[in-house]
Write a structure and sequence with these properties.
Blueprint (H helix, E strand, L loop, with lengths): L2 H18 L24 H22 L3 H13 L3 H48 L10 H8 L1
Helix pairs in contact: 1-5, 2-4, 3-4
């Protein structure tokens, strides 16, 4: 089945269902989810991929750039401390805090990238499951009217 045909079948089924089923919910003008609509639920694989790549690229760039001054900062803090200046221990605390914060940000970017990759994979599996589940016992693709029989 071509992707366009699949999208058309989903749209036709949705149009027929909207007249038959009504959810118990707030009126459209009354608060709630910030004006979300069905369009908010659409997943575009290429967009997820781009966002995941951007998160990964940000992590890698930040990993390199955030480490640029670390060695010299550490060396300066040790030298200042060894010279008896309190500023050396303060600079070492700053160095350690910076390392902790950069590690947190790198982990967050990696988590976002990994989560988007997982979401793409899971979405693809769900689509395959839905498409294969739309075949009848004989292996023929069910039409929208046959699908509606199951929903009733």
């Amino acid at each position: 089945m071509a992707w366009d045909e699949w999208e058309q079948l989903k749209a036709q089924s949705s149009d027929r269902q909207s007249a038959k089923m009504q959810l118990n919910q707030l009126p459209a003008d009354g608060g709630g989810g910030g004006g979300s609509s069905d369009a908010d639920l659409v997943v575009h694989d290429d967009q997820l991929g781009k966002l995941g790549n951007m998160a990964y690229d940000l992590r890698e760039k930040f990993r390199v750039d955030s480490d640029f001054a670390r060695p010299s900062t550490f060396t300066a803090s040790v030298d200042l401390f060894n010279d008896g200046l309190d500023m050396g221990s303060a600079l070492l605390e700053l160095h350690d805090a910076w390392n902790t914060q950069t590690q947190t940000l790198k982990e967050a970017c990696a988590h976002i990238s990994n989560h988007l990759d997982f979401t793409r994979g899971q979405h693809a599996k769900d689509e395959v499951h839905i498409q294969t589940g739309m075949k009848d016992a004989a292996g023929h693709l069910m039409t929208v009217s046959r699908i509606n029989d199951y929903i009733k």
